[in-house]
């Protein structure tokens, strides 16, 4: 298994247990990976709409696992097609 896949699995596993957390919590829960590796993988996960990544502007980052089970998923910012109501 590639190093990136291991990291991605750890990040998503952590977020499944704690759907909203700060980057520093995630860094502590991923020993063997640098802050930079974790942050870069979070950016990739954010671009693929699996994780929502936010900064408070003071260097503190919060992340949230995107949920695909809702009609409106804030990570996707649109209606999920399979859940959208049919026109009347």
Present the secondary structure layout.
Layout: H1 3-17, E1 20-22, H2 23-29, H3 35-47, E2 51-55, E3 61-65, E4 72-73, E5 78-79
Antiparallel strand pairs: 1-3, 2-3, 4-5
Helix pairs in contact: 1-3
Account of the 3D structure:
With 88 residues, this protein is an alpha+beta fold. The chain contains three helices and five strands. It has a three-stranded antiparallel sheet. A two-stranded antiparallel ribbon has the order 4-5. Strand 2 and strand 3 form a beta hairpin. It is globular, with a radius of gyration of 15 Å. The N and C termini lie far apart (49 Å). The relative contact order is 0.15.
Summarize the structure.
With 88 residues, the chain is an alpha+beta fold.
Instruction: Say what the CATH topology is.
Output: Arc Repressor Mutant, subunit A
Task: Give the overall pLDDT as a whole number.
Answer: 81
The fourth-level CATH homologous superfamily is Winged helix-like DNA-binding domain superfamily/Winged helix DNA-binding domain
CATH architecture grouping: Orthogonal Bundle
What descriptors fit this protein?
Arc Repressor Mutant, subunit A; two-stranded antiparallel ribbon; 3 helices; 5 strands; 88 residues; 19% strand; three-stranded antiparallel β-sheet; alpha+beta; disordered C terminus
């Amino acid at each position: 298994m590639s190093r990136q896949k291991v990291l991605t699995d750890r990040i998503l596993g952590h977020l499944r247990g704690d759907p909203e957390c700060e980057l520093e919590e995630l860094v502590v829960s991923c020993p063997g990976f640098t802050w930079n590796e974790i942050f870069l993988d979070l950016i990739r996960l954010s671009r693929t709409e699996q994780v929502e990544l936010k900064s408070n502007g003071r260097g503190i980052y919060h992340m949230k696992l995107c949920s695909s089970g809702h009609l409106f998923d804030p990570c996707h910012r649109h209606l999920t097609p399979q859940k959208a109501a049919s026109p009347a």
